[in-house]
Amino acid sequence: MTVDQAVALGLADEPDDPWRAGPGAGLTRREREIAALVATGMTNREIARKLQLSVRTVEAHVDHALTKLGLRTRTQLAARMHQDGLAPGNT
Fold first, then answer.
1. How many CB atoms within 10 Å of residue 6?
2. Confidence at residue 21, expressed as pLDDT on a 0 to 100 scale
3. From CA 87, how far away is CA 37, in angstroms rounded?
4. Are the CB atoms for 47 and 38 separated by under 8 Å?
C-alpha cells in the first residue's frame, strides 16, 4: 500500500464532519464559536468573560477567523456567520 492509498483510506474512514467542507470550513471549533458570538454583537471583553478566556485570546481567535475567511472587519465576520447559518438563532 502506498502512502497516498493509506491517506485516502484513513480519510474515508473518518466520520463526516460538516465543518470540513461546509460553512465555516477552515475555522477551528473555537474560532467558529467566537465568530458566532461576534455575530450576536458581543464585544471581545464580553466574549472573554462568557468563555472564561483572556481578551487577548479572543482577539487572536477573531483575527484568525478574519484572516482565514478573507475578511477585514467584525461586521463582515458577523454578516458571514449569519449568511452561512452559523450565528445563534439562525434556523
1. 10
2. 43
3. 7
4. yes
Note the pTM of the prediction, 2 decimals.
Answer: 0.72
**How far apart are alpha carbons 58 and 88 in whole angstroms?**
18
Class (C level, CATH) for 28-91: mainly alpha
With a cut of 80, say whether residue 38 has pLDDT above it: yes
Which residues, 6 or more positions from 23, have their beta carbon under 8 angstroms from its beta carbon?
A: 84, 85, 86
User: What does the domain layout of the chain look like in residue ranges?
Assistant: 28-91
pLDDT tens per residue, range 13-31: 444 443 444 566 689 999 9
Residue corresponding to grid cell 471549533: 29
- Secondary structure string (H, E, C) spanning the chain: CCHHHHHHHHHHHCCCCHHHHCCCCCCCHHHHHHHHHHHCCCCHHHHHHHHCCCHHHHHHHHHHHHHHHCCCCHHHHHHHHHHCCCCCCCC
The label of the residue with cell 449569519 reads 82
